[in-house]
Design brief:
The protein contains 1 helix and 7 strands; from the N terminus they run βββββββα. The protein has 127 residues and is mostly beta strands.
């Protein structure tokens, strides 16, 4: 019998359909370039995205500053702080972040998450 420990997460995470969502931010390595990542998961507290980058540019605790998030047709801005990174191999990493939407986008962020939760419940997805 396998026992799964209860989650200590306060907020559920929602997996996003690959290719449906992106995040755009200034390169934390300081190149002055804008980089784009594939948004993979969202929650009330944060988000995760995949990008082609060296893990040393994404140190836990580092502020990524302002970034743009697009989930489907919904676009909003906010700030992010790196929480963790995971090496995916072949030059790809996944960056987990705390996300702080801009004041004017806070309600839209929460409405977006509520919509994702309702849609997933309607199709029976336990992401």
């Amino acid at each position: 019998m396998t026992l799964t420990p209860p989650s200590t997460r306060r907020d559920p995470r929602f997996n996003l359909k690959r290719g449906s969502s992106i995040v755009e931010l200034d390169d934390p390595a300081g190149s002055g370039q804008s980089i784009e990542g594939v948004l993979t998961r969202v929650s009330a507290a944060g988000l995760a995205f995949e990008t082609a980058a060296a893990p040393v540019a994404y140190i836990p605790g580092r502020s990524l500053g302002s970034l743009a998030v697009r989930v489907g047709e919904c676009a909003l801005r906010g700030e992010a702080v790196v929480r963790n990174i995971r090496n995916l191999g072949q030059g790809q990493i996944e960056v987990g972040c705390l996300f702080y939407p801009d004041v004017e986008d806070e309600d839209r962020w929460m409405t977006l998450l509520a919509g994702i939760e309702v849609a997933l419940a309607a199709i029976g997805d336990d992401s």
